[in-house]
Amino acid sequence: MKGYVHGYSEKETERLYAQAGTLSEYLHHDSIFPPGSRVLEPGCGTGAQTLILARNNPGVEIVAVDVSAESLRRAAKVIGENGIRNVTFLQADIFNLPFVPGEFDHLFICFVLEHLSDPSNALLGLKRFIRPGGSVTVIEGDHGSYFSHPQSREACEAVRCLIDMQSRLGGDALIGRRLFPLLANAGFKNVSVSPRMIYVDSSRPDLVEGFTIKTFIAMVEGVKSQAVGAGLIEKAVWEKGVRDLYRAAEKDGTFCYTFFKAKALK
User: Hey, how many other C-beta atoms are within 10 angstroms of the C-beta on 21?
Assistant: First the structure.
């Protein structure tokens, strides 16, 4: 991974927690593991998903790993403030983890593969830490699934900048559609993928604020300087595109996006 396209600012941390809280019921109502299990969460970042995973599974032991010491500091702070005791944090590279084969019962990966230049190799490497018969759960988005009403050419170009910038950093913002072949090619069994479409209109104000504005548009806004600086888009076009995205969050607007959740066995 050459870099995290969204950056490591406090604003990005807030976006991650807004996203996690808003989407919890859509993405994690079935992220449940048997009590007594050991769960490995690589690429935990600031712990936004870790918090939900730990709350939903108080009887499991979670080992959350990230390469960033600052992200882990923020994660540990939030976990501690919420009185959670079943999470252990470890600083390590996802491609060089200090575990033994079969040490974990389950693997939980959320919004991580999209940032890796070699997600196939990452899955192969992580697979060996799961015991035979253990499971893997992977959740990823797909920015190409975005559409809205109204929708403009400029809005689509602004979203495309986010996709292109992530690609330049070695990632894949369209990886959601690839989860089935990625897991199958890594040798996992019984692979199943379920799309989790988020549909938003003004009858769902929590999603308008929590997802359309604070999650998706915030992601697009976060790459403005990178996209304009790289010559991917003219500043005026980008600004109109973002205004048009906000227009879809108004009373008569609608917004759609699809996440993909895959489960499989070793």
Answer: 16
Cα(114)–Cα(168) distance, integer angstroms = 12
Q: Kindly state the percentage of the chain with pLDDT values over 70.
A: 94
Q: Could you report the per-residue pLDDT of 150-186, keeping only the tens digit for each? A: 999 999 999 999 999 999 999 999 999 999 999 999 9
d(CA 228, CA 216): 19
Indicate the residue type of 26.
Answer: Y
Question: What are the structure tokens assigned to 134, written together?
Answer: 């253990």
Quote the DSSP letter at residue 208: I
170 class by beta-carbon count within 10 Å (0-12 exposed, 13-18 middle, 19+ buried) = middle
> Any idea which residue has 């935990």 for tokens?
44
Rounded Cα distance between 240 and 213, Å, is: 16
DSSP code of residue 213: I
Contact of 8 with 115, CB cutoff 8 Å:
no
The model's pTM is 0.92
Instruction: Tell me how far apart the alpha carbons of residues 148 and 247 are, in angstroms, rounded to a whole number.
Output: 10
Cα–Cα distance measured from residue 212 to residue 159, given in angstroms and rounded to the nearest whole number: 13
What is the end-to-end Cα distance of the chain in Å, rounded? 25
Assess contact for 66 and 75: CB atoms under 8 A. Answer: yes
Name the helix (H) or strand (E) containing 13.
helix 10-27
Q: Which domains does the chain have, with CATH numbers?
A: 10-265 (3.40.50.150)
Q: Are 68 and 43 within 8 A, CB to CB? A: no
Q: What is the tens place of the pLDDT at every residue in 184-211?
A: 999 999 999 999 999 999 999 999 999 9
pLDDT tens per residue across span 84-95: 999 999 999 999
